[in-house]
Automatic annotation (TrEMBL):
GO terms for molecular function: molecular adaptor activity. TPR repeats lie at residues 84-117, 118-151. GO terms for biological process: post-translational protein targeting to endoplasmic reticulum membrane. It comes from Nereida ignava. This is Type IV pilus biogenesis/stability protein PilW. InterPro entries: SGT (IPR047150), TPR-like_helical_dom_sf (IPR011990), TPR_rpt (IPR019734). GO terms for cellular component: membrane; TRC complex. PANTHER family: LD24721P. Keywords: Repeat, TPR repeat.
Length: 170
């Protein structure tokens, strides 16, 4: 499936749907609390061992140890392949090592499992933009904005890409 078609086919549903609805309707003054609540919900797998692997992976990333993080997060996705946050976190580690192919693969899996993951969708847009696929990147950022309309970084990316692609609609 082409990247642009993949972005277009992501359905808006998934875990923590009620919180996502609140996020979509939040004001610029109220979204931060809802955003944290949603990210906390996404970080709970229901398995203590999976949650520990996620935390170890995140701690390694915070320390700049991305290869170590990938080890923990690979164990996590092997242990809990249905846990979207594991895939998203590993994609972030791959991205930080400029391993964009594996990062894209993990982002795709995260979005299959959690189509409302605006951070994964935004990461998808960043990689697409870096690879020169500007229209697909714009589509990804627009999809992310439909989930989280108050993220300034997403709005800035959309404005930049609209200028670059001449304001063309997908």
């Amino acid at each position: 499936m082409g990247l642009q078609l993949f972005v277009a086919n992501i359905a808006m549903a998934g875990p923590a749907a009620e919180i996502v609805d609140r996020l979509k309707n939040a004001t610029p003054d109220s979204y931060a609390v809802i955003e944290r609540e949603l990210e906390n919900a996404w970080s709970r797998s229901g398995s203590a061992s999976a949650d520990l692997l996620l935390q170890r992976g995140r701690n390694a990333m915070e320390a700049g140890e991305f290869k170590v993080a990938i080890g923990h997060l690979t164990a996590l996705v092997d242990h809990a392949p249905e846990f979207a946050e594991g895939w998203n976190a590993r994609a972030t580690a791959y991205f930080n090592l400029e391993m964009y192919g594996p990062a894209l693969d993990d982002i795709r899996q995260a979005l299959v499992l959690n189509p409302n993951h605006y951070k994964a969708m935004s990461g998808f847009g960043i990689i697409l933009e870096r690879s020169g696929n500007l229209q697909a990147a714009l589509d990804a950022f627009r999809k992310a904005a439909s989930i989280h309309p108050n993220r300034e970084d997403i709005a800035t990316a959309i404005e930049r890409l609209e200028r670059e692609v001449g304001g063309q609609q997908a």
